[in-house]
Design brief:
With 229 residues, the protein is α/β, with parallel strands linked by helices. It is 31% helix and 18% strand. Helix 4 packs parallel to helix 5. It binds SN-glycerol-3-phosphate and calcium ion. The site of SN-glycerol-3-phosphate has 8 residues, from strand 2.
């Protein structure tokens, strides 16, 4: 069976990552799911920003957790990539989009240890307010465990970058190896979430191994490769 195509930060090659434009394009390109990273602002809002700071992906600078949502809204998160100006994307807005389209949302919490569970608690509360097919993800076992206790009904992915342990904790429903780990473990891959596979050889590998969810920055090209091979 073909892996489900998950748009990593939206259709992030063609549009500025984590903007509404990137996610809308991913949906038009036929992505089965959407991936995002979330961080807490100083005043407790979850926003979709990958880095600790907004320096790379906006016309501003500063640490996300030291800025309020109103301060973040003064900056443009689109033009850096050559796109239209764009507001910082709140998780609330992205959940609205996912709900409207009936699309699964893969939500990765960043820096869970530093904030002692605040990110996971806020995420659980926010998901209580939306009817969305959501999957929680993190590189931190503590974060995944904590979230599972709050929302045992929602699936979780434990992400792996350098090492892929054989045993997976009970609270992690899926393993989430990077694609380089998949290459290094020829006997594994069945039913996992893999990131980030843009290269045709990696896309083919994901299918051969029975990967269930394939995160890509190019949902259209990935779909085309899967359909043609
Ligand atoms: O989908 C998981 C992947 O996004 C993890 O890496 O750095 O892109 O958040 P990163
Ligand atoms: Ca991510």
């Amino acid at each position: 069976m073909s892996p489900e195509v998950v748009a990593h930060r939206g259709a992030s090659t063609r549009r500025p990552e984590h903007t509404l434009a990137a996610y809308e394009l991913a949906l038009r390109q036929g992505a089965d799911g959407l991936e995002c990273d979330v961080r807490l602002t100083k005043d407790g809002h979850l926003v979709c920003v990958h880095d600790r700071t907004i320096d790379r992906t906006s016309d501003g600078s500063g640490v996300v957790s030291e800025l309020t949502l109103a301060e973040l809204r003064r900056h443009d998160f689109g033009s850096w990539h050559g796109g239209e100006p764009a507001d910082v994307l709140t998780l609330d807005a992205l959940l609205g989009l996912a709900a409207d389209h009936g699309t699964r949302l893969f939500i990765e919490t960043k820096h869970p240890v530093r904030y002692r569970g605040d990110v996971e608690r806020s995420l659980a509360e926010e998901l209580d307010r939306h009817r969305v097919d959501a999957v929680m993800m993190s590189f931190s076992v503590f974060a995944v465990n904590r979230f599972k206790q709050l929302r045992p009904d929602l699936p979780t992915v434990l992400l792996y970058d350098r090492l892929w342990p054989r045993a997976r904790p009970r609270f992690a429903d899926y393993a989430g190896p990077g694609v380089d780990l998949l290459r290094r473990h020829p006997d594994r891959g069945e039913g996992v979430y893999t990131w980030t596979a843009d290269d045709p050889a990696d896309i083919a590998l994901c299918r051969e191994r029975g990967v269930r969810f394939l995160a890509t920055n190019n949902p259209d090209e990935t779909r085309a490769h899967l359909a043609a091979n």
